[in-house]
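Reminder to self: tokens first, then the designed residues, so the page reads top to bottom the way the pipeline ran.
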């Protein structure tokens, strides 16, 4: 089959051996595959990422620069053939999406990020039947291919535990930031403030539903929040609020006021504070957010920073900030995201800014290096387009 292979950072369209589904696997004809930011990282920093994942997670199969690898983990396609030990749930030709993870025996391989699991920059891809879902409601291949990145955003939003009345900040409006904005609005969050230096990305953030969009070189996103009282609060304000509350409580005779504090801890009742999504992933951003965040904010780190970084823990401690890191999604979140797309609860179309064929992937990677035009470029293995 034809595939675009990367080796030592260079792309080539090649004929590679046809894939054969193993136990529990399905062979799928790829109809679309999204280009992810992690693909851009893996092309250049594959060895660093392999060293990191091996040392921190025990996963030893991440691609290395001297290997020939077919990238692409945001794919959709049509069922072709089943391997042994499958339930053959769907007829050939059925549109499906799948979690990009493949099993060889007891070893797991990240599809599109391991030499042992070729990805979706190809005419065909292998998927695990147990991790595969049929595409409902006639959802288009363009939108179905975005199930994977939108599931990443949905996991981040769920981890952030953003109630509808809380203000959400999205710092960085690249593809993952835009997906987070879309999912926040799908979750019913009423106020989403987005911040990015790029005019193009700010435009896309508005199209994805952001209520306030800010150029951080001109205006502070924190000052742009509609709820000024929350954003202007600092630890001293909280202390004074505590004095005022205690003065009122102690005036009420025979009331065990300390029970109220115990109940607040039990049910996690606290003064309203924003949830901040860091979607940039470059050194220095996280520390800037910690310094600017209002007291008791929750910071969800979605952007992947591949370089060493420095934060000042005392800043977060003094404000009692909550810091959460997120990765990927679970199968339930993946399935729910697919149905949110198919039911029209989320519109991913603002993210899609171009399409190329296998011969155009190198040009697409170059184009994605600039934030001023593209957000998400899709690969159509049957297209002859060489530029997005």
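Designed residues (388 positions):
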């Amino acid at each position: 089959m034809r595939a675009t292979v990367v080796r030592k950072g260079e792309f080539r369209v090649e004929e590679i051996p046809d894939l054969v589904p193993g136990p529990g696997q399905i062979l799928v004809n790829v109809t679309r595959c999204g280009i992810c930011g992690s693909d851009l990282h893996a092309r250049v920093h594959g060895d660093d990422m392999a060293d990191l994942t091996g040392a921190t997670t025990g996963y030893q199969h991440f691609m290395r620069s001297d290997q020939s690898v077919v990238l692409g983990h945001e794919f959709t396609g049509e069922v072709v053939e089943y391997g042994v030990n499958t339930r053959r749930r769907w007829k050939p030709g059925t549109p499906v999406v799948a979690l990009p993870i493949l099993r060889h025996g007891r070893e797991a391989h990240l599809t599109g990020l391991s030499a042992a699991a070729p990805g979706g920059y190809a005419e065909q891809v292998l998927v695990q039947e147990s991790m595969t879902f049929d595409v409902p409601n006639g959802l288009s291949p363009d939108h179905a291919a975005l199930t994977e990145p939108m599931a990443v955003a949905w996991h981040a939003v769920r981890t952030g535990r953003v109630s509808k009345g809380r203000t959400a900040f999205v710092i960085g409006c690249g593809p993952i930031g835009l997906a987070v904005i879309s999912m926040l609005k799908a979750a019913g969050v009423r106020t989403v403030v987005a911040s990015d230096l790029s005019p193009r990305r700010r435009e896309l953030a508005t199209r994805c539903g952001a209520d306030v969009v800010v150029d951080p070189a001109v205006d502070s996103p924190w000052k742009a929040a509609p709820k000024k009282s929350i954003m202007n609060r600092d630890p001293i304000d909280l202390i004074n609020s505590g004095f005022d509350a205690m003065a009122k409580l102690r005036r009420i005779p025979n009331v065990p006021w300390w029970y109220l504090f115990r109940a607040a801890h039990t049910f996690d009742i606290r003064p309203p504070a924003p949830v901040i999504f860091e979607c940039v992933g470059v050194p220095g951003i996280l520390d800037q957010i910690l310094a600017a965040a209002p007291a008791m904010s929750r910071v969800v780190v979605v952007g992947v920073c591949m370089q060493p970084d420095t934060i000042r823990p005392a800043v977060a401690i003094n404000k009692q900030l909550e810091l959460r890191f997120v990765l990927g999604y679970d199968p339930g979140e993946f399935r729910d995201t697919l149905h949110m797309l198919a039911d029209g609860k989320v519109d991913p179309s603002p993210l899609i800014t171009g399409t190329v064929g296998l011969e155009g992937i190198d040009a697409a990677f170059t184009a994605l290096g600039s934030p001023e035009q593209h957000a998400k470029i899709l690969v159509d293995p049957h297209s002859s387009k060489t530029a997005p």
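The chain has two domains: 2-146+348-379, 149-233+271-325.
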